[in-house]
Design brief:
The chain is α/β, with parallel strands linked by helices. The chain is 59% helix and 13% strand. The two termini are 27 Å apart. The model is unreliable at 1-15 (pLDDT under 50).
C-alpha cells in the first residue's frame, strides 16, 4: 500500500515544540507518534534523523512523499532525506507556502496601509463595548474576523469581513480584497480534508493568478507585483514534479477544455515515473499513459 507521510509541527504552550507524525493513505489519516523536539527543532541534522527513522519504520517502499513545514531546518532535512531515499519525495507544506505568499503580499505598501487600518478599526470596535454592541445591531450579530498573530491569511480575511459588513468602509479595501481572495481560496482548498489537494494545486494556483489579473482589469502595474510575490514562493517551494504529475493524472482536469499540456507538466510527470518506477514498471506505465492520453477503453467512458 502506498502511503504519504505527513509531518506537522505544533507549539506546546510556548515552552516547547512537539513534532507530530501523521500518515495519510487511501485508508485515511492516522497519528503515528509525537516527539518533543524543544531542544533540537532548529537543527537540520536532528530533523533529518527524525524523518529518516519514521520512513524506516513505515518502510521506504511504502512512502510516496514526506511533507514538512517550509523553515530552513526542514528544507535541509527534506533534501538530505531525498538524497538517502532515492524513491521518495520531500514536499514543503502547500498551506504554509501560500500563507507565506500572503505575508509577502501584505508587506507591499498599498496592502500594508490598508491592513494596518483594518486592524485598527477592528481593535477599536472590539475594545469598546458600546461600539461593539452598536456594530452587532447593524450586522445582525455577525462578527468580524479578528486578526491573528500566527496566520497571515487572517489579516486578509479581516478585510473581507469588513467589506462584507459595510461595502463603503474603505474604497481600497475592495481592491485589496479582490487581489487576495483568490489566494485565500486556494489556502482553504489545500487546508481542507474534503478532497486530496495534490491533483488540484497546480491548477488552483494558475487559476488564482488569472483571477487576480482579471480583478485588476488586466493592468500589469496592479497585478504584476502580486504575481511576482507569488512566483517567488511558488517556483522554489511549491512547483514540484509531484504537483505536475497530480495535475496530469487527474482525469477531471486532463480531459477538461482548459488542460495545459505544457512541457513542464509532462517533465514533472516523467521525473516522478523515473524516480518511483523500475525499468519494467516504467515500460508498462508508458503504455498505460498512451491509453490515458487518448481516453481509450474504459478511460473514454463518460460517467
Amino acid at each position: 500500500m502506498d502511503v504519504q507521510l505527513c509531518q506537522m509541527v505544533g507549539q506546546m504552550e510556548k515552552v516547547g515544540c512537539l513534532i507530530n507524525f501523521l500518515v495519510n493513505s487511501p485508508a485515511g489519516t492516522w497519528f503515528m507518534k509525537s516527539i518533543d523536539a524543544s531542544d533540537t527543532i532548529k537543527n537540520g541534522e536532528n530533523m533529518f534523523k527524525y524523518l529518516d527513522e519514521v520512513v524506516e519504520e513505515i518502510g521506504e517502499e511504502n512512502v510516496v512523499q514526506v511533507i514538512t513545514d517550509n523553515a530552513s531546518n526542514y528544507v535541509n532535512a527534506g533534501m538530505r532525506l531525498m538524497e538517502k531515499r532515492s524513491r521518495l519525495w520531500w514536499t514543503p507544506c502547500a498551506a504554509h507556502c501560500i500563507d507565506l505568499m500572503l505575508e509577502d503580499i501584505g508587506k507591499l505598501n498599498v496592502h500594508a496601509t490598508t491592513l494596518s487600518r483594518a486592524r485598527q478599526v477592528v481593535k477599536f470596535i472590539y475594545g469598546h463595548t458600546w461600539v461593539l454592541s452598536l456594530m452587532r445591531t447593524f450586522t445582525k450579530n455577525h462578527e468580524l474576523i479578528r486578526p491573528a498573530i500566527t496566520r497571515f491569511a487572517t489579516a486578509f480575511l479581516t478585510l473581507q469581513s469588513l467589506y462584507k459588513q459595510k461595502q463603503a468602509l474603505y474604497s481600497n479595501v475592495l481592491l485589496r480584497k479582490m487581489t487576495t481572495v483568490p489566494l485565500v481560496s486556494v489556502l482553504r482548498e489545500v487546508d481542507s480534508e474534503e478532497r486530496p489537494a495534490m491533483g488540484y494545486i497546480y491548477e488552483l494556483m494558475d487559476s488564482a493568478k488569472e483571477k487576480i489579473a482579471f480583478n485588476c482589469r488586466g493592468m500589469e502595474r496592479k497585478y504584476g507585483p502580486i504575481w511576482r510575490k507569488i512566483d517567488a514562493r511558488w517556483t522554489p517551494q511549491l512547483h514540484r514534479p509531484l504537483h505536475a504529475a497530480g495535475y496530469y493524472l487527474n482525469p477531471q482536469l486532463r480531459y477538461g477544455d482548459k488542460f495545459s499540456n505544457v512541457d513542464e507538466v509532462r517533465k514533472g510527470l516523467f521525473e516522478c515515473m523515473d524516480k518511483m518506477l523500475d525499468y519494467q514498471k516504467r515500460l508498462k506505465a508508458d503504455i498505460q499513459l498512451d491509453s490515458y492520453d487518448q481516453a481509450m477503453g474504459e478511460l473514454g467512458v463518460v460517467l
